[in-house]
Amino acid sequence: VLEQFLQEGRMSALLWEVCQQPAQAGSPELQEVLLNRVVCLPDHVSNKLEGKNPPVFFPQNYFPLLGGAIIQVLQKISDSLRGGLDCSISFVSHVLGKVCVHGRQKEILGVLVPRLMDLTKSDCIWQRICWRLIECVPDRWMEAVVLGFVQRAPGADVLSRLLGNLVVKNKKAQFVVTQKMLLLQYGHTTAVLQNLLGYLALDSLRRALLIKVLQELLEMWSSSSAVKHSPPEQQQYISKAILICLFHLKETEIESCRQELLTSMMEGVKCHLDSSLPQIRRLGMIVAESISAKINTDGPVLKFQVKVIMEFMSGEFIRLMRLNYINSLKPCVIPHVTLLFIKCFKDCNNIQARSDQVLLLDRGKDCIDDDLIPYDMSEDKEVKIKAPVYIRDCIEVLTGSEDMDKWEATIKALESLVRKNPEATREVSVELAKILLHLEEKTCIEGFVELRQRAQVAVLTTDPIPVAKYLTSQFYSLNYSLRQRMDILDVLVLAAQELSYPKSHGKTKHSGGPKPCIQLLPGSDSSKDWRRIVDERIKSKTRRFATGQSQVELASSPNEFNSVAGHFFFPLIQHFDRPLTTFDLLGEDHFVLGRLVHTLAVLMYLAVNTMAVAAMGKALLEFVWALRFHTDSYVRQGLLSCISSLLISVPAERLLEDMTEELLETQSWLGDVVEKDPDGDCRRLALQNLLFMENLKKKL
């Protein structure tokens, strides 16, 4: 009977009858019962029939049918209003709200939104019916309904037609649109942001809310606490919302809040540039440039380096903005927004072309005068500068020579010279390490940074202990730039990697045992013929089912990192909490702290099977415990990498014997990170560590 009831369209008749009833004493209770039965009918039928219900009661079939019934009822309400008769729409609003809050927005709004779009195009009565339909939804269900309409509207103009000034009339809808969907959530697509902010911009009564939203977004964007603690996905979401808001602003609105925009830009770009995550710094520069272009239409605007901007243009954030925003906004609806956005990206895309033109002009500026006759250089030969052959000669060239060609030849040959002369290098290793650490590029030599780094690694691997002591002591010394301190960390890691690996790759041999053979005495050719005949007979009568695979047998060699691991590791971990005048790892230099933590993780990993690995692991665990609540996500990622390296390198027996209590506390902390850390990479690393710890326990 119920199946026939639905198939014959009686649901619309039921809804229409309730809409016609006047408010009576027993009516609310009856409407509540009807509401529950109408919305939950598929669940009730499925419970009674234990899952063997007819297809018409499947949710994917029932709720589109219910949406069609609602359209029919709204049509009757429209006819009644045109005829001068009163009727109520609240029951239909309650049905819509409860269906949406049960998670069936897709099914019911997939029917309602397209039909309401067509009906409200040119009919003011249908527009008022649609507005009233949503306004009568109870506050406890309003969020689900508004979110459903925002997600399924094909554009801001359609959303404005369907919702009207709902955000002005209803406080709950205003909170959802201006607060929850923009500041508390960040999983919505760019199209949803365009619908939402475009809707606020399309009516004079709602534009005040657009200005308010932009101010709150900028306040969050320029907050150092928010930049440190919120995940990169949320910061990207907020940045996109700010850019879309900026392109909706009018000149008069910009003029009224120009100073506030400038203040937010200066504070926000500083917070973003202080971040250790490259994508956060990029977002800060993109938004700052957009704000500057908006508030300084006549004067100079903020511009970052061409190379940096081109990196932004290749990033995922800009690709999303370029594809989603320009393609979805309709010029006929908001022409000034589209033109501004397209102009912004055309300007950025033309940056590389302009830089290429400047480069060509620079190259050809000496050839402007066509009257000058060029020299004939066809027979010229390149003069080859002989590089020094002694280490001390290299030191003299690098410290005092004015011959730039000789200086270039020396820096190119230094690494190979150091490796060929280890004894001579050990005599001046610390002095040479000091020169290389302070060495600056005097000429435009290609790959200078890499050449210098490789020479430093060669010196460190040739004489590890004194050079490592020097470099680790200089890391915490005064009057060094952050770049030099990070160079020290890079050199230590590369040298430790080289020292911990075997020096030769061995020789290839077959997996099978030695083959028996007959040793023949040297004799005449007949003996060779005899051997050949026997081999051919054996080969012809031998059946082989499989052949052994050749494998590489690594030649055994002592681990050179074993005796020096402590000299690389312990000095770096000692003074991290002592601030200097120009260097504060626990303060503003948190990016270098992140690099230090990652370096310690790599050194711990490379120290596997060394004598000092247990002591290193215990010290590293104490170091991690002291910094586990650091606000910077890059530092926390490094700390979790340290835990991974520790679990891999330290033998499991030593872990449980020497660090039982520390491991239990670490396990509890990792559980908190998995549940509460705002950074997705930190949560994944913590989960991997927990799984690894469980596997270790099972093995033991």
UniProtKB/TrEMBL annotation:
Domain of life of the source: Eukaryota
Protein name per its UniProtKB record: Telomere length regulation protein TEL2 homolog
Organism name: Nestor notabilis
Alphabetical list of PANTHER family matching this protein: TELOMERE LENGTH REGULATION PROTEIN TEL2 FAMILY MEMBER, TELOMERE LENGTH REGULATION PROTEIN TEL2 HOMOLOG
SUPFAM superfamilies noted in UniProt: ARM repeat (SSF48371)
Subcellular location: Cytoplasm; Membrane; Nucleus
Gene3D superfamilies according to UniProt: Telomere length regulation protein 2, C-terminal domain
Keyword field contains Coiled coil: no
GO BP field: 'de novo' cotranslational protein folding
Domain TELO2 ARM repeat: 206-300
